[in-house]
Design a protein that fits this description.
Order of helices and strands: HHHHHHHHHH
Shape: globular
CATH topology of one domain: Urease accessory protein UreF
Number of helices: 10
CATH superfamily of one domain: Urease accessory protein UreF
Helix content: 55-70%
Length: 222
């Protein structure tokens, strides 16, 4: 077993207290509108989210960090690309918690550098970048880090959908199984993207995230 594997499992476990359970990242807007009302509908939404937001934003940011792009530059790009206030705040809240947890259980000079950038106002502290810093410092290879991050996000969103729609637990597992191919395709696509592709996500997803701010009744913060 590689030295980082148990640490990676801990880092991506749904029990890691980053607050991800409180965010739908926009799918609750579709639930409210009746567009996502069952297993099939959520599966369609999730597939779009993986191929767009997770590919052109989170995943590409992780790859670029691994390839040596300046962390402060990536952080600024990430802040600029998150047009929805709620989703931007979600990224920062979960990133802040991950930086705090990482400093206690997975400390490294790289993580301290990012924390210092955040503490001094030179960076905001986004979740995927915090994950990338911790993962790379643990020696996790880029492809494994991407797969772990993407699928952990998919798992959390599916668990949230099980509560919100609601879906049965077995339905949630079927959705996750079908998402395997989408995650694999996203990893392959991320490898071919350029820095100019960063932030090129679906307007429909972003509009739904913005509309969530004014949704009358909701379970989630985003």
């Amino acid at each position: 077993m590689s030295s980082y594997q148990l640490a990676l499992q801990q880092l991506t476990d749904s029990a890691l207290p980053t607050g991800a359970f409180a965010h739908s990242l926009g799918f609750e807007t579709y639930v409210e509108a009746g567009v996502v009302a069952d297993e099939a509908g959520f599966g369609v939404w999730l597939s779009a989210f993986i191929s767009q937001s997770l590919t052109y934003s989170d995943g590409l940011a992780i790859r670029l960090f691994y390839e040596g792009v300046d962390l402060g530059e990536l952080d600024a790009l990430f802040s600029a690309s998150l047009l929805s206030r709620q989703v931007r705040e979600a990224s920062l809240k979960m990133g802040s918690r991950l930086l705090e947890i990482g400093a206690e259980v997975f400390p490294s000079p790289e993580l301290e550098l990012y924390r210092d950038l955040v503490a001094t106002g030179r960076a905001a502290g986004h979740q995927p970048l915090a994950f990338a810093v911790v993962a790379r410092s643990l020696g996790v290879p880029q492809q494994e880090a991407l797969a772990a991050y993407l699928f952990a996000t998919v798992t959390t969103l599916t668990q949230n959908a099980v509560r919100a729609i609601p879906l049965g637990q077995n339905a949630g597992q079927r959705v996750l199984r079908k998402a395997h191919d989408d995650v694999a395709a996203a990893i392959n696509r991320i490898a071919r993207l350029t820095p100019d592709d960063f932030g090129a996500v679906s307007p429909g997803l972003e509009i739904s995230q913005m509309r969530h701010e004014r949704q009358r009744a909701r379970m989630f913060m985003s």
